[in-house]
Specification:
Elements: H1 18-33, H2 41-54, H3 59-65, H4 67-83, E1 88-92, E2 95-98, H5 99-123, H6 128-137, H7 142-171, H8 181-208, H9 225-250
Antiparallel strand pairs: 1-2
């Protein structure tokens, strides 16, 4: 009896076109940054969550990488009310919390979080190598694209070096909390130096293996109809966002 034929392998998933994602991220980032009214913050949040839902990005990874931006946005909301504004909401001795500063801080923090979420959602599923190829295909100079790739690689090496240094410090019984801040600074400085040296070695190895020569970057196919439709849809949505913000700011809506 003949052995059954093996089931055909499932086709490999088609990687998203990096050119489309780069253009969409730029359009959405510029439209979010142009928002100037606090009433548009729920719209920004809904738009960012919609992009995250349809982009195919890992939600847990996006939340993890959003921590730094979240801390900065919280700093805007907490600090700016003490520095700007006329209408006092809360006062404790010489400290005054102003409404105008709270609105400005909330607007800055909300725009920052929305832009970071959209950027991570659209670009994190794509490999850095394909992002560089997409940037070059869009006309970005090769030097700038290579510097972006090297920066991403350096940040990865810095994160790995810092994690290893922190683990070694905990295993050796290092102090924690505020008392350990000097040691944390030393660890960060050493991780910066080691990460930079390793990134330079990786870059030298890439150049020796022919990176940057003809044929080393993946050749991207022509844009499909759905890609063009997606870019047009994002462009229309970005323009509608700007028009709605202007209408709310002028009171015509």
């Amino acid at each position: 009896m003949a052995a059954p034929l093996p089931a055909p392998a499932a086709p490999a998933p088609v990687l998203p076109d990096p050119r489309v994602r780069l253009v969409m991220a730029l359009m959405l980032a510029f439209s979010f940054a142009s928002v100037g009214t606090v009433m548009m913050l729920p719209v920004l949040g809904a738009g960012a969550l919609l992009v995250l839902a349809v982009s195919g990005a890992d939600g847990g990874l996006v939340r993890t990488r959003l921590r730094g931006a979240g801390v900065l946005a919280l700093a805007f909301v907490v600090v700016l009310p003490f520095l700007a504004g006329d209408q006092v909401l809360w006062q404790l001795g010489p400290l005054r919390w102003h409404l105008q500063g709270l609105e400005a801080g909330g607007l800055m923090g909300g725009r920052l979080l929305a832009i970071v979420v959209v950027t991570l959602a659209l670009l994190s599923p794509v490999a850095p190598f394909r992002l560089v190829a997409g940037a070059r295909a869009l006309g970005v100079p090769a030097l700038m694209a290579d510097l972006a790739l090297l920066t991403l690689r350096y940040l990865d090496e810095l994160r790995a070096e810092l994690a290893r240094a922190r683990l070694a410090r905990r295993l050796r019984g290092g102090t924690g909390g505020w008392r350990g801040l000097p040691e944390q600074g030393i660890l960060l400085a050493s991780a910066l130096i080691r990460g930079q040296r390793r990134a330079e070695r990786i870059w030298a190895a890439m150049r020796l293996r022919g990176y940057g020569a003809a044929g080393t970057l993946p050749v991207l196919p022509p844009l499909a109809g759905r890609d063009i439709c997606a870019m047009v849809g994002v462009a229309v949505g970005s323009l509608a966002l700007v028009v709605l913000d202007r209408a709310l700011s002028t009171g015509t809506l």
